[in-house]
Design brief:
The chain is of the alpha+beta class and 264 residues long. The protein has one domain (21-259). It is built from seven helices and 14 strands. A hairpin with a 4-residue loop joins strand 7 (162-169) and strand 8 (174-182). The protein is globular, with a radius of gyration of 21 Å.
Length: 264
């Protein structure tokens, strides 16, 4: 019904829905907007983080400028036992008072941000882009591997073998959805060290939580492969983030530990 409704809207109002920019202009503007927004966004959040891929665990995460506190509250669909909850509380207390662990979390976060920035910058060049569909709200771009792109590292090699769709909010030029599929095997060390298999998929969903403030709300990754000595190098991730609420900028780690005990 949603698809049909969108098709009817486009048929009735083609001029209003049509975007006169080229696909390359649309993706470049979206990347530029995302990078600028990320640089300006200093918001902190408390949210529910559910991992479905393994033991269906649920955590409450509270961000602060000093680091993020993540409290496990259920596993396998069941709340933690009293003993497990006490152990989790002790783990959190150890974490927030351990400078080395806090520093490691900060380094890991900085590396994640660096990787995300590099991948965003790579999008216009690594793929060829076409408009697949559009309506009054969104533009869906189709991307395919650019045979002239020379990926500089393994991360970009994997990404550059993808094809899929990217949805852009036409009003704000923000990326709403990114989904793709590995179109060919990716060899690591000419296949001697490992191989990622064609057909692996990923999907990232983002939503606007407050005016101009967007967050990832769902991440799905299913990529399989084999490394040296037949160890798995695949990645499985099925993560949903919900129930976002703003956290005051001066929140301490101790306060975050208390806030993580409940979303109420």
């Amino acid at each position: 019904m949603v698809v049909l409704g969108g098709a009817m809207l486009m048929a009735l109002s083609p001029l209003r829905a049509q975007d006169t920019r080229s696909p390359d202009e649309i993706i470049r503007k979206a990347v530029k907007t995302e990078l600028a927004a990320d640089h300006a966004d200093h918001s902190l959040w408390r949210y529910r983080d559910e991992h479905k891929e393994a033991d269906d665990s649920v955590s409450i995460v509270v961000q602060t400028k000093y680091g993020s506190v993540s409290r496990l509250i259920s596993k396998g669909g069941q709340p933690l036992s009293e003993a497990a909850a006490q152990a989790e509380d002790q783990r959190i207390q150890n974490f927030i008072h351990d400078p080395a662990k806090l520093a490691k979390q900060k380094r890991d976060g900085a590396q994640d941000d660096k990787n995300a920035t590099e991948l965003l910058n790579m999008l216009p060049e690594a793929f060829t882009w076409t408009v697949q569909s559009e309506d009054a709200k969104d533009i869906t771009l189709r991307f395919a591997r650019n045979p002239h792109f020379n990926p500089p590292d393994m991360q970009s090699r994997v990404m550059s073998t993808m094809e899929g769709e990217l949805v852009v909010d036409r009003k704000q030029n923000r990326i709403v959805t990114l989904r793709g599929r590995l179109t060919q095997d990716v060899l690591i060390g000419w296949g001697i060290l490992g191989r990622l298999h064609a057909g692996g998929t990923f999907r990232v969903e983002r939503r606007e939580l407050e005016p101009g403030l967007w967050q990832i709300t769902q991440t799905y990754v299913n990529i399989q492969g084999k490394a040296l000595f037949f160890k798995s190098i695949g990645q499985q991730q099925d993560e949903v983030q919900s129930d976002f609420t703003r956290v005051p900028p001066d929140t301490t780690l101790e306060q975050a530990a208390e806030m993580s005990k409940s979303l109420n």
